[in-house]
Specification:
This is Pur operon repressor. With 275 residues, this protein is an alpha/beta fold. It is 33% helix and 27% strand. The chain has seven helices and twelve strands. A six-stranded mixed beta sheet has the order 6-5-9-10-11-12, with helices on both faces. It has a two-stranded antiparallel ribbon with strand order 1-2. β7 and β8 form a beta hairpin. α2 packs across α3 and α5 packs across α6.
């Protein structure tokens, strides 16, 4: 790269950090990339760090020593997250979103890039202090949320299938009980998709009783993997608490009441905002 003016270097360096989250970048690499002295690079990083933190973009961590450098960690202030989720709640309360069985239509929202980026950053912030190797979700609607979160954390995604795909080779399959329908269902994961003893963050779009998430947890046990956390976009609170199969999870929104006759739903911010 040709030598840049400082203003241009600051812009390019900022973009580089945003595009490489959770990646340790040495001062030497930056110095060579921009053909500048390390002292100048350090001054630039100090400016970027200040702006990132003041504007709620994230944190820039500096690691000292010969193997040190800087690492950008995307973060979203809880106040900013709450404003976004309140808008989400208002949208989900629209009468035409109420579906039979006490569900809400959310597919269109899960296809909005800006919202997905925000939700991914919320989950990345919620689980920022936990060591995580990869993200797991089950097909299909949770996939976009999982990838949005993975993009912020710079880790891979594995997708649990309802049935085994021949193109994925041998797989581990388990039966689980759907929490809402009480039916026996099957989920599977390719043996090559997950290393043993991995630390896994489970992401899902909607949780009613928690049967699907519990199924993924049981599947992880077959790989000797550890559940590092569970994040759900919307949880249903319109059920008896003793029916819930899962207690340790983070939700961004909560369906607290629904009337199928009047098509009225009440959606409020989830437990992430009560801690």
């Amino acid at each position: 790269m040709k030598k840049l003016k400082r203003s241009s270097r600051l812009v390019e360096m900022t973009q580089y950090l945003l595009a490489h989250p959770h990646t340790l970048i040495s001062l030497t690499a930056f110095a060579e990339r921009y053909q500048s002295a390390k002292s100048s690079i350090s001054e630039d990083l100090a400016i970027i760090k200040e702006v990132f933190e003041e504007e709620g973009i994230g944190q820039l961590h500096t690691l000292a020593g010969a193997a040190g450098g800087v690492k950008f960690k995307p973060m979203m202030p809880k106040e900013t997250s709450l404003d976004i989720i309140k808008q989400v709640c208002e949208t989900l309360q629209q009468p035409d979103r109420v579906l039979p069985g006490g569900y809400l239509y959310m597919t269109d929202m899960l296809g909005q890039p800006e919202l997905l980026a925000d939700v991914g950053k919320m989950f990345a912030t919620a689980f920022a202090d936990r060591p995580i190797d990869l993200i797991m979700t089950v097909e299909t609607k949770g996939i976009s949320l999982a990838y949005a979160t993975a993009a912020c954390m710079n880790i891979p995604v594995v997708i649990v299938r309802r049935d085994n795909k021949v193109t994925e080779g041998s797989a581990v399959s388990i039966n689980y009980v759907s929490g809402s329908t009480k039916r026996i269902q099957t989920m599977s994961l390719a043996r090559r998709a997950l290393k043993e003893q991995s630390r896994v963050l489970i992401i899902d779009d909607f949780m009613k009783v928690g049967g699907t998430v519990q199924g993924m947890i049981d599947l992880l046990h077959e790989f000797n993997a550890t559940v590092a956390g569970v994040g759900v976009f919307v949880e249903s609170g319109a059920i008896e608490s003793e029916e819930r199969l899962l207690q340790d999870y983070v939700s961004l929104a909560k369906l607290t009441a629904i009337d199928l006759k009047t098509k009225q739903a009440e959606v409020v911010p989830g437990n992430y905002f009560s801690t």
